[in-house]
Amino acid sequence: MNMKTFSLKKEDVNRQWYVVDATDKVLGRLATKIADRIRGKDKATYTPHTDGGDYVIVINASKVKVTGSKYEDKKYYSHSLYPGGLKTKTFRELNETNPEKIIFEAVKGMLPKNKLNKSIIKKLRVFDGDDHGHDAQQPIEWEPKV
CB count, 10 Å around CB of 131? Predict the structure, then answer.
């Protein structure tokens, strides 16, 4: 028996575009499904060292849900790298000002911290409203089971 191990090459990748409506979806459960899709883990051709994932467009980012008391208690931190430069925002504050960042950061945290990270996260597009401007790519409606 002479079995060969399959290894996906970057020129053999077939990418699709998917659009997800984040309305009333739980943030963490939605982010894991999106991370798997943009990484390519849901495909039979998954290869860890190759970026074989699809593009995902998320719409209605401000309508995402969180469980428990995270709406008021969950905090997002940023630092200016100067002394005393720590800035803190709650989920509610960030959802009012920049809701796209909430989903982007949740998905980014679920990706591997390696050289593929930057190319994988570029396949995620997050929008606050219904209009995403990617009609030319003919995205497929995707309803992840969360």
Answer: 9
